[in-house]
Design goal:
With 469 residues, the chain is of the alpha+beta class. The protein has 4 domains: 44 residues, no CATH class; 82 residues, no CATH class; 75 residues; 190 residues, Nucleotidyltransferase, domain 5. It has 14 helices and 10 strands.
């Protein structure tokens, strides 16, 4: 149930005189132009129109709605009190009782004036133990007519932190938080001093506008929420680089149209050729159209020649390795294996890893990808190189997310993982057992198979010797 505010006579308003309905076309001084349903124009004077006993305005303005989300954040007790007053205001203005009950005679708008109804409502509230003066009731009625239910809410419950703080303080706080992006992580006290210095530089006396210390802490906590102002500096800077929204999307409609390449340290400790146990770097290519991994390399550190070799491997079939499940063979996939054998006999014993010719390679500004060797290799193969903007990893988010999948679907099942934070690493190192050394190619082939994943690779050795350089 709702109520409308008293209408105002304006251009476009609909009025009723006797049994006829008119629309106000224009108002000029004391003259009013009216148009009926047939389009006939008539002119009457404003005093004559308002003194006509049959005059009625049929298009009153609707009552204002509460601010978006404000009522939901109100205390339940204050909201129930406002709704209790709303039921009385509805009966006072419209005569309708709660839940659409028929009007009581003492609140009938056609039989009693607004003043009489207000006095009756004051007497009723006093009998119920809610004594209210006539002036207070009229003030609530006017607020309800102009602001709706929000006008009946207790203003003390609607107050928000910082409601009485100078706007220049808010601007200075936001400026100081933004300035902390590339600074070392500090405290709120340091931020407060910077806010005061910023106010002084703008000819504002901090002693007159700065809130109390507890209020300032609350304002800073609300303004810095989710920005890591007083936490990790790398996270803070990474979040500051995040764009407000995507400028557009790239849709790959065929394999090789868009391929993403990147490198990352693998969270698995392995044994190198020289017997040293250390981490290695994984470099691979992700095809954006098929979400497959055409080629991958593991090296102690990725060089330009490794990146060029990665392109060549994506053009050649991956042979089946000893110990691999038969389900990883290309002959077991949904690809037309018999027809492909006529094209290349090497596919007879190939794994179900797609052979894709790259058209466009998207890379970052790593030394291996912005080198002459990588550019020459791409030029020789007719591949277009599309570097991303510096410090913009989201422009190749597909390969970045694939690294996370590698850690959750493969690396964490290896007993000797090297967590980026040493709190998650294994306590002891188990030497590699003969015959149990596996290859990450098996996992990548399992994940990029055209017929889908065949299940988690279970033969994960604790230590893995990568192929020599």
């Amino acid at each position: 149930m709702s109520v409308s505010r008293p209408g105002e006579l304006a251009v476009g308003s609909q009025i009723k005189i006797a049994a006829d309905v008119f629309t106000v076309k224009s108002l000029s001084g004391t003259q009013v132009e009216l148009v009926d349903g047939l389009g006939v124009l008539s002119i009457v004077t404003l005093p004559a129109l308002l003194t006509d006993p049959s005059f009625a305005l049929t298009t009153p303005r609707p009552a204002a709605l509460a601010p978006q989300g404000e009522l939901e954040s109100m205390p339940l007790e204050a909201l129930e009190q406002a709704r209790w007053w709303e039921r009385h205001m509805l009966e006072l203005l419209t005569g309708r009782g709660p839940d659409g009950a028929p009007p009581r005679p003492e609140y009938d708008p056609d039989a009693r004036s607004l003043r009489q109804r207000e006095m009756t409502k004051c007497e009723e509230l006093a009998a119920l133990g809610h004594g209210t003066s006539l002036r207070q009731l009229q003030r609530l009625r006017r607020r309800y007519e102009t602001r709706g239910l929000w006008g009946l809410v207790d203003g003390r419950a609607a107050r928000r932190p910082g409601a009485y703080t100078d706007e220049r303080v808010f601007e200075a706080i936001n400026w100081a938080i933004h300035a902390e992006t590339n600074e070392s992580t500090g405290t709120v006290d340091r931020l407060r001093r910077r806010v005061e210095q910023h106010l002084q530089a703008n000819d504002v006396d901090p002693s007159k506008v700065m809130p109390s210390r507890p209020t300032f802490y609350r304002l800073v906590k609300r303004a810095a929420r989710g920005r890591h102002t007083f936490a990790s500096a790398p996270t803070r800077r990474s979040l500051a680089k995040r764009p407000g929204g995507p400028f557009g999307t790239v849709v790959a409609v065929r394999p090789g149209e868009w391929m993403l390449v990147d490198s990352t340290p693998l969270d698995v400790r392995v044994m190198l050729d020289n017997g040293i146990i250390d981490r290695v770097e994984l470099t691979w290519i992700v095809d954006w159209a098929t979400r497959s991994i055409p080629s991958a390399l593991l090296r102690p550190s990725t060089k330009a020649v490794d990146a060029a070799l990665l392109l060549a491997r994506s053009l050649t079939p991956e042979p089946m390795r000893p110990g691999w499940a038969e389900a990883l063979a290309m002959s077991r996939s949904v690809l037309p294996h018999a027809r492909l054998l006529k094209v290349d006999e090497r596919l007879r014993y190939a794994a179900a890893r797609p052979v894709i010719v790259p058209e466009t390679i998207v890379c970052d500004h790593g030394k291996a990808y912005r080198s002459a060797a990588f550019d020459n290799a791409c030029r020789a193969m007719g591949i277009n190189v599309q570097p991303t903007h510096k410090g913009s990893p989201w422009e190749k988010g597909g390969v970045e997310r694939a690294f996370g999948s590698l850690n959750t679907l493969f690396a964490q099942y290896v007993s000797v993982t090297s967590a980026r934070a040493w709190t998650g690493a294994a306590r002891t190192l188990t030497p590699a057992r003969s015959g149990r050394c596996t290859n990450c190619r098996s996992w990548s082939t399992n994940g990029s198979s055209p017929h889908g994943r065949t299940g988690r690779t279970t033969a994960c050795a604790p230590l893995w010797r990568p192929a020599g350089r």
